Amino acid sequence: MKKLTLLIPALVIAAAIGLSSLFIVDERENVLVLQFGQIRQVRTEPGLGVRIPLIQEVVRYDARILGLQTQPLEVTPLDDRRLVVDAFARWRINEVERFRQAVGTEGVRAAQIRIERILNAAIREVLGSVPSTAVLSENRTSLMNRIRDIARREGQSLGVDVIDVRLTRTDLPEQNLEATYARMRAEREREAADEIARGNEAAQRVRALADRTVVELVSSARREAEIIRGEADAERNRIYADAFGRDAEFFAFTRSLTSYERALTGANSSMVLSPDSEFFQFLRTDGMDLSATQTLQPSGEGADAETDEPAE
Prior knowledge:
Number of helices: 8
Number of strands: 9
CATH architecture of the domain at 66-178: 2-Layer Sandwich
Low-confidence stretches: 287-312
CATH topology of the domain at 66-178: Tetrahydropterin Synthase, Chain A
Radius of gyration: 61 Å
């Protein structure tokens, strides 16, 4: 019984030591087994591994593709026009043993700092050999590929593989933006002024053409009106002349009556004329002879209407 009491704790301790000597390698990671800081095992395949408890330790590194966003970097292209550039890189650990030797115990964090330095140097080297127009253009894939190749070559010493590099921003420095915007604004204002001037010129031409058309139409209408008025006056004069030619005395009589009507119209009309004036020749008794007065009388009255009194 006493031996059984001592055996159970020993079995528990042995089981714990046995379990602690085992470790699992995930398919998304690489594993190093270190003994006093020295690499004893490198496990890149998923499965179950064995280590010596309390002597060996397991260090895990992510085997997936990692991303790195660099800080904005000011570069000077070939035409001495400063630009602010930042990039995004995708990388992964392809040689975990070399990676451990290069970055030590700090792991991925130290690797990202060193990769960013490599990228910054590659960006300065590549973009400094081309003009700024090539950097700002949409067709800059060749520049990014050159940066990637340089970073990949330099990253081999870290045990990493730089898969891709992309320039995410290429802008002018903040102090140059206002000057650039002012120049762009001046150019747009000049173009707008040119368009306005051309529009005003076209409007003047249209307005002048319309004014000339109005003058021509009005002149033509007036000319036609004068022609029609002249023809009407001629027709009127012809009718008057024809009427006057038929009966001159009756024509004079009607014209005198019209003159009387126009002269004596109104409540406060005054005229100063000589009694024997020709204006009143048809108002006097001897203005027309008796035979003419009898002629103007209606035919139904006959000879009985004859009198020595003049017709009213």
